[in-house]
Amino acid sequence: MSAISAEETPFRRFVSEFAASKLALFGLFVFVLIALAAIFANWIGPQNPYDLAQLDIMDGRLPPGSKSAAGYTYLLGTDDQGRDMFSGMLFGLRISLAVGVGSALFAACVGTTLGLLAAFFGRRTDAVIMRIVDLQLSFPAILVALMILAVLGKSVMNVVLALVIVEWAGYARNVRAIAMVERKREYIEAATCLALPWRRIMFRHLLPNCLPPLIVIATQQVARAIALEATLSFLGLGVPITEPSLGLLIANGYQYMLSGKYWISFYPGIALLITIVSINLVGDHLRDVLNPRLKR
Amino acid sequence: MSATLEVRNLRTHFFTRAGVVKAVDDVSFSVERGQVLGLVGESGSGKSVTGFSIIGLIDPPGRLTGGSILYQGEDLAKLSERDMRHLRGNRIAMIFQDPMMTLNPVLRIDTQMTEAVHAHVKTTNADARARARDALGMVGIPSPEERLNAYPHQFSGGMRQRVAIAIALLHNPDLLIADEPTTALDVTIQAQILAEVQKLTTDHGTALIWITHDLSVIAGLADRIAVMYAGRVVETGEATDVLDHPVHPYTHGLIGSVPSRNKRGERLRQIPGMTPSLLSLPPGCAFRTRCTHATSVCEQEPPTSEPSPGHTARCFHPIEGNAP
Amino acid sequence: MFTWILRRMFQASFVLLAMTVIVFVGVHVIGNPVDILISPEADQAERAKIIAEMGLDQPLWRQYAYFLNGALHGDLGRSFVFNEPALKLIGGRMPATLELAVTAVLMSMCFGIPLGLYAGLKPNGFLGRVIMTGSILGFSLPSFWVGLMLIMVFAVQLGWLPSTGRGETAMLFGVRWSFLTWDGLRHMAMPALNLSLFNISLVLRLTRAGVRENLTMDYVKFARAKGLSPARVIFVHILKNIMIPVTTVLGLELGSTIAFAVVTESVFAWPGMGKLIIDSINVLDRPVIVAYLMMIVLMFITINLVVDILYTMLDPRVRLETKA
């Protein structure tokens, strides 16, 4: 019996291959830490940065390590509102991650469905969907996001919407390419011969086989979405000032940077950097592990 | 008369992550002025690597680990890269297997030819161009002056191989290494190119090493033949000796598998199995796993026998008699 | 070739038309055109007058016709803030952006190609690995953050370079340029570097991949077999092959670079179109927003068209095929 339990499943093989890269494991570890910090921001942060009653404007722009009037230490200093930077960053991280992960997942759903439809039905459906994808991809992400936010105005939901619109095309193109190859395999032919309903073939047969590359793309897109959200917020087009993400925190501190009060911008920037790099480390290695072309 | 080229105990090994690949292992042969040597073997037998070793184009992880390559008495293996470069394309030239890939697709023919002239001769552009034009005419390319301005993709495969040959012969080299130059071409073109090269080399007294996997190509061309298997020369000698009285079982098999030598209606003979991986070559004769004559003694290093003067083979069980 | 260009132009104008529909729908259907196109300070009578004047009480297709007609005559409304035609306003800011974007693209070639060549020729060396890791950062770091760090280090800490603005400008062809004065160049250094980081990484990776691929090609080996110097092989045979994809991609990236200048211009307070659009969005100066979007879409389509044509001219294979 033990022989069976020790048998190598694809998932086990994947785990052991992923674990082979220390750098990727480190990236995953850091990302999990960051995610936990963001999720439990309420408990970890010494202050609720959204609660104006807790802020003391007299504590504004204090350097890291300063004591607050209430007696605790501002580990990373305060911003111009007297907000504890450390708490602000944790809450900002939460918004950045939520927007980044949320939009990437939503875009994945939309893009995957359309990509599968294009590959599955071919002809007209394929031509129409791929034309839109080509048009979309020929414009840079920032420009498309800018257009959408300029027309719709700024709110968290609009940022998510803009990111989804920017990203779905990438998923659709990749999924279509993979599904086109898979579609010609025997198992799909067999399923078609059994006259299974097309929805079942598409989602139960085709989709699972497109998953590995999809995971790689999704990982990279999360990092991209977080960076783009930060950029938009930095430009003042992203999340509203009442719910500052990392990008907005950096923007707030920007004006003080030239006078040497670096910490307001610097630490959120570092947090953003670590988040993006850790995701990319994981994504890069995932690509190596899951890409069958690189394997012999 | 001293040989134009004498290769002695050449070893070229590739140090890959998976282990050491002994692509060429203790290979010796020689070619004299005006002579044609046929270097025969299956793909992966190390014949191309031998060619690249001679012209000094072995890239890491490959390295010459032993032996000497004497060109007119001078050891090429010991030459500096700079001195080697002066010989390359000048005294020793090479043409490649796939004419579609040999010429740079984004450079015009005149650029690719005149640069080869300028690399070895101090001369004017006009003169270099004139030489290029003459060389094209020599290999039978019609209206060479116009063709100089063309790009490679405007030529057919056979024409491209002619251009490559023209480039190789620009400086009338003493030695030409032809690495399966006709394999990728149509049969009729093959014959033309073959005749062309033979004529040009005999005219200029160029020594020629013709690398091929096809014994029938070499049969009418070569003066001497060296048969390679798994990085080693297993049999060498005068072409007539090797073809008519092969001694090594592998040569026997090779000759037996040439269709024209089989009787009509008879089953085509073949050598069972595949070329072994050079990574995990067991000691002793590398051919023993496919050889019908093999015995336990073949696990040791085979001795060199000399059935007739200048005709040698490395085998415990040399075959006597005529070719199959 | 000519019909091909005509066909491409037809396609391009179709895309442009499609984009006008999208922008029109965005502004007139999703948003409220009265709010978007009429200054919020206008009183009731003025409002009614403008609504009638602009035909906002007309059916949708007529409104679109008006919009298109205006766009064709270069009339995309007046800026509320500057009380100037929006197009003129954007045109005035365009040189600053173009200057920055073109410099950034040139910089990405100057840095990206040599770094990529090095990393491609020495893929396992320490420096080669450092370059590749650096390129991952160049891809993934948000450029505004890198911009801030540049300011912090070179302007605040070291005080070597000015942090914001265009600096001194000089006139050329009736337009003010920064690159003509030393002070202007000093102001441009950091923004241009910031804007080029992504492209540097891109060019670097393309070049490296191209070198790795080309090194295994027969035509490179043949070029070496001709006895050419390593410099000639690298800078003529390999580089010329690499330049085709690199120029194509960079040409296509020029549009993205202009779009991404929005970020860089905001960080470095560079008074170009990007800074203008962000300011306009923040004060809801909508005619300017619409004009900017139309301009940049037009620019994009033109660039894509030009690059397509240039590409066919650059690559002899494509060029001669389309001619035939």
Provide structural commentary.
The complex is a heterotrimer of chains A (296), B (324) and C (324). Chain A is mainly α. Helix content of chain A is 72%, strand content 1%. In chain A, strand 1 and strand 2 (73-74) form a beta hairpin. The model of chain A is unreliable at 1-5 (pLDDT under 50). Chain B has 324 residues and is α/β, with parallel strands linked by helices. In chain B, 30% of the residues lie in helices and 24% in strands. In chain C, a hairpin with a 2-residue loop joins strand 1 (170-172) and strand 2. Chain C has a two-stranded antiparallel sheet with strand order 1-2. Chain C has a domain at 92-274: MetI-like (MetI-like fold, Orthogonal Bundle). Chain C has helices spanning 2-30, 33-37, 44-54, 60-72, 86-121, 126-140, 143-157, 182-215, 218-225, 230-267, 273-282, 286-314, 316-323; strands at residues 170-172, 175-177. Chains in contact: A-C, B-C. Chain A binds chain C through residues 135, 138-140, 142-143, 146-152, 223, 227-228, 230-231, 234-237, 247, 250, 254, 257-258, 260, 262, 265-266, 269, 272-273, 276-277, 280, 284, and chain C through 15, 18, 23, 26-27, 30-31, 136-137, 140-145, 148-149, 151-152, 155-156, 163, 255-256, 259-260, 262-263, 266-267, 277-278, 281-282, 289, 293, 296-297, 300, 304.
